[in-house]
């Protein structure tokens, strides 16, 4: 197995072969469920008000991967989403634009055409999203197609079947090859934590994805419940923090699915700030995969600035 | 950078009054002792003047408690006593915010702790014991266990309301009446609890609350008509009380100091162990008798753990206790702050390596930045004496046997923490810990169903759970 980046010797040893990888992943410190959930709930009580809240709202908007992943998606819907991404609140030009628009591969071209020159990334899901149930060739072809169509970010899914049956080498290989197929595009590795179930698995999958070259680790497809929970995100933030302390490299985290309110988003930002560190409060290193969150952020932003609530009719539905 | 804006809880919620009076025989009355001024340790401002008890007030209170015991409370069916105790519990919840803010003003602890720990746990102690009041026949102490009579109770300043609840709830549930002395520096929430008790229409004299200093406590525990003494506080005072009571037929429970070991093995869930260490020593500014003030870490992971610990402690927010985002509040008094400083200086002088969080501290008030000493040895004062502040001493060990030997090598024995993913090791360690409470993969968790108490110089007797009832029953 070949590590995609130059790793410090301890980590290079971990990816030497399948059994080294297994030993490394199983040698990671365990995660105590009660403890991590208690810590997540505790940090969730932080009270973010006034200027700090407004700052958090703008930061969260700039971190949104505005997403539509429906069978019923149309080019028209994707164009609408791109318009929303460019200017989330049409009446308020000072609202930051979102980080990326996230679509299925066949919609990438539509999105890319709409977003040329805006600095907004086009993210595409790939690798037989959301189940990941296909052959490696097809997954690689899926990835290459997305990149050719103009995706600058690829959100892949790991093979949970292989992971859960302990075939870590296979998962590693797949991520590494998809990373190669991405070329310059950034790779987000979806762990689908709702199917991994335990926090120990989440930690192992996080490290596996980081070792294999994932630029981001992402919680979920949004198609499986539970999706992005705070404690799962804590475990993943600990992984990128520890990755940085061992390699000096900064990798990102993306919770996706189920984050719908400003209040929730702020809890995640507090976790980013206090678990990983303030360095990660940056759209290059933290994203929200969300569709309905943006509107709540916009409504709360208006409330902060205007001093009163407006209501859902003052923000656009798509 | 993302700075959290100040998010202070409003101090008006505390309904702070300029004067507080003692509560005797169902009335708030002026005590004839010298009034005391209670201070907000975060600002050093005087919060209120509180009347204190004299020797004769103590006598009046004990007499009132005796009358209430003889005429009403000991004869009342348990199911009726339960109604009163449930009512107190509900009123504590009802006035939870008021109590939390007042506690934070008077004690200096962060509002998030008074709001999320002290007040809800106080209410749960009343709820739990209310449930026992009509089931004492089934508690395992015989078919019809009798109460003891008048309980004289003296409590400390670190959890003023919660300690009052720990003391009063089981006493009432078992049919005793109470005279309680809150700590000199933190009398206010106990007097609001008195107001709640008055609101709940408890028969006069069942609960009496008499503020004052040590002399009032001494008069109370020495009073000839007190049948049961319960004290939580320092080991020094505990010894004096035990001496004072020797040769009398008063029943005594003592909950005293501690120097607990928090033991982290190399297979521990590290991130959660770090949280547990932080919670163990920085919860309530370390003013916790069962605080995990000695960290024993297996040598093979010591450096990694220490690095994570320093990073985590650096994120602790120290400052205005009323701010909802404050993690570590004010040290309760100037005297306590001086004691903490003196002991940390001794740590440096004896050669331990000091690391202190670089967090900013307020200009006014009594504050102490979270501090971690590494390279500590068993012989140093900071490994042996209770600091009762936000100061952690880190020692290492190599084998489980060594961990046991070091953990038990203290005159105290209140609590211990064991961090390992291996269940069999948890059980092996727990059997060998000479500590009344052993937590595993967590720390500083309190629940009214779990008995709490110590070994050796940490005291004797248990509070909470079925076991805790024994202290208030004639068995």
Automatic annotation (TrEMBL), chain A:
InterPro entries xrefs: Aldolase_TIM, DeoC, DeoC/FbaB/LacD_aldolase
Pathway field: Carbohydrate degradation; 2-deoxy-D-ribose 1-phosphate degradation; D-glyceraldehyde 3-phosphate and acetaldehyde from 2-deoxy-alpha-D-ribose 1-phosphate: step 2/2
Alphabetical UniProt keywords: Lyase, Schiff base
Enzyme's top EC category: lyase
GO-annotated molecular function: deoxyribose-phosphate aldolase activity
Entry's Gene Ontology cellular component terms: cytoplasm
Assigned EC number: 4.1.2.4
Catalytic activity line of the entry: 2-deoxy-D-ribose 5-phosphate = D-glyceraldehyde 3-phosphate + acetaldehyde
Keyword Lyase recorded: yes
GO annotation, biological process: carbohydrate catabolic process; deoxyribonucleotide catabolic process
Family: Belongs to the DeoC/FbaB aldolase family. DeoC type 2 subfamily.
Protein name: Deoxyribose-phosphate aldolase
The species this protein was found in: Lentzea fradiae
TrEMBL record, chain B:
Annotated keywords: Oxidoreductase
Positions of the catalytic residues: 255
GO molecular function, one term: oxidoreductase activity, acting on the aldehyde or oxo group of donors, NAD or NADP as acceptor
Ranges where the Aldehyde dehydrogenase domain occurs: 28-474
Highest taxon in the source lineage: Bacteria
PANTHER family (UniProt xref): ALDEHYDE DEHYDROGENASE-RELATED
Pfam families, per the entry: Aldedh
UniProt-recorded name of the protein: Aldehyde dehydrogenase (NAD+)
Keyword Secreted tagged: no
Family statement drawn from the similarity comment of this UniProt entry: Belongs to the aldehyde dehydrogenase family.
Oxidoreductase among keywords: yes
InterPro entries, A to Z: Ald_DH/histidinol_DH, Ald_DH_C, Ald_DH_CS_GLU, Ald_DH_N, Aldehyde_DH_dom
């Amino acid at each position: 197995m070949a590590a995609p980046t130059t790793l410090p010797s301890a980590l290079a040893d971990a990816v030497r072969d399948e059994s080294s990888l297994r030993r490394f992943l199983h040698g990671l410190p365990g995660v105590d469920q009660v403890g991590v959930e208690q810590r997540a709930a505790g940090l969730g009580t932080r009270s973010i008000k006034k200027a700090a809240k407004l700052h958090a709202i703008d930061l969260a908007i700039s971190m949104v991967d505005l997403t539509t992943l429906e069978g019923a998606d149309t080019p028209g819907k994707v164009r609408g989403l791109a318009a929303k991404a460019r200017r989330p609140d049409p009446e308020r030009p000072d609202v930051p634009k979102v980080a990326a628009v996230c679509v299925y591969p066949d919609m990438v071209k539509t999105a890319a055409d709409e977003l040329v020159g805006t600095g907004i990334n086009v993210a595409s899901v790939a690798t037989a999203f959301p189940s990941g149930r296909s052959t490696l060739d097809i997954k690689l072809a899926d990835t290459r197609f997305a990149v050719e169509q103009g995706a600058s970010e690829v959100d892949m899914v790991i093979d949970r079947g292989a992971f859960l049956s302990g075939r870590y080498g296979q998962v590693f290989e797949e991520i590494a090859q998809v990373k190669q197929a991405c070329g310059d595009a950034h790779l987000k590795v979806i762990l689908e934590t709702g199917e991994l179930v335990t926090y120990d698995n989440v930690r192992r999958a996080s490290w596996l994805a980081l070792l294999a070259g994932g630029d981001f680790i992402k919680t979920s497809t949004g198609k499986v419940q539970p999706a992005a929970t705070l404690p799962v995100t804590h475990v993943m933030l600990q992984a990128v923090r520890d990755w940085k302390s061992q390699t000096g490299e900064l990798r990102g985290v993306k919770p996706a699915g189920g984050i719908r309110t400003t209040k929730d988003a702020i809890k995640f930002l507090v976790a980013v700030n206090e678990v990983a560190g303030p360095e990660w409060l940056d759209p290059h290193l933290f994203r929200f995969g969300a569709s309905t969150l943006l509107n709540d952020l916009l409504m709360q932003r208006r409330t902060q600035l205007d001093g009163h609530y407006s209501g859902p009719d003052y923000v656009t539905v798509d | 950078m993302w700075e959290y804006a100040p998010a202070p809880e409003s101090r008006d919620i505390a309904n702070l009054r300029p004067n507080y009076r003692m509560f005797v025989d169902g009335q708030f009355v002026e005590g004839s002792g010298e009034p005391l001024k209670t201070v907000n340790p975060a600002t050093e401002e005087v919060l209120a003047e509180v009347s204190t008890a004299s020797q004769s007030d103590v006598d009046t209170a004990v007499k009132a408690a005796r009358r209430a015991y003889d005429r009403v409370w000991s004869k009342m069916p348990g199911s009726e006593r339960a109604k009163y105790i449930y009512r107190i519990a509900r009123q504590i919840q009802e006035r939870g915010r008021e109590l939390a803010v007042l506690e934070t003003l008077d004690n200096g602890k962060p509002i998030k702790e008074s709001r999320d720990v002290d007040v809800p746990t106080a209410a749960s102690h009343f709820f739990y014991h209310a449930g026992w009041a009509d089931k004492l026949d089934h508690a395992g102490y015989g078919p019809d266990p009798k109460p003891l009579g008048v309980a004289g109770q003296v409590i400390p300043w670190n959890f003023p309301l919660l300690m009052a609840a720990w003391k009063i709830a089981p006493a009432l549930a078992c049919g005793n009446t109470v005279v309680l002395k809150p700590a000199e520096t933190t009398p206010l929430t106990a007097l609001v609890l008195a107001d709640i008790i008055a609101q709940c229409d408890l028969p006069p004299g069942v609960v009496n609350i008499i503020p004052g200093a040590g002399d009032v406590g001494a008069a109370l525990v020495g009073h000839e008509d007190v049948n049961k003494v319960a004290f939580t506080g320092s080991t020094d005072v505990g010894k004096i009380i035990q001496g004072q009571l020797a040769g009398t037929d008063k029943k005594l429970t003592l909950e005293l100091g501690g120097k607990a070991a928090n033991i982290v093995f190399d297979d521990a869930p590290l991130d959660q162990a770090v949280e547990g260490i932080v919670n163990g020593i920085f919860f309530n500014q370390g003013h916790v008798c069962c605080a995990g003030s000695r960290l024993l870490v297996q040598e093979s992971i010591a450096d990694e753990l220490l690095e994570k610990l320093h990073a985590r402690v650096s994120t602790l927010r120290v400052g205005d206790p009323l701010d909802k985002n404050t993690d570590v509040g004010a040290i309760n008094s100037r005297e306590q702050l001086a004691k903490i400083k003196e002991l940390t200086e001794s740590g440096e002088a004896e050669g331990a390596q000091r690391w202190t969080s670089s967090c900013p501290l307020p200009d006014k008030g009594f504050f102490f930045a979270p501090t971690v000493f590494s390279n500590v040895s068993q012989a140093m004062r900071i490994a042996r004496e209770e600091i009762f502040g936000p100061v952690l001493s880190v020692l290492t060990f190599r084998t489980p046997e060594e961990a046991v030997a070091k953990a038990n090598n203290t005159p105290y024995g209140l609590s211990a923490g064991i961090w390992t993913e291996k269940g069999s090791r948890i059980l092996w360690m727990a059997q060998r810990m000479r500590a009344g409470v052993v937590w595993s993969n967590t720390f500083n968790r309190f629940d009214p169903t779990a008995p709490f108490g110590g070994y050796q110089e940490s005291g004797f007797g248990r509070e909470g759970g079925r076991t805790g009832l024994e202290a208030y029953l004639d068995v």
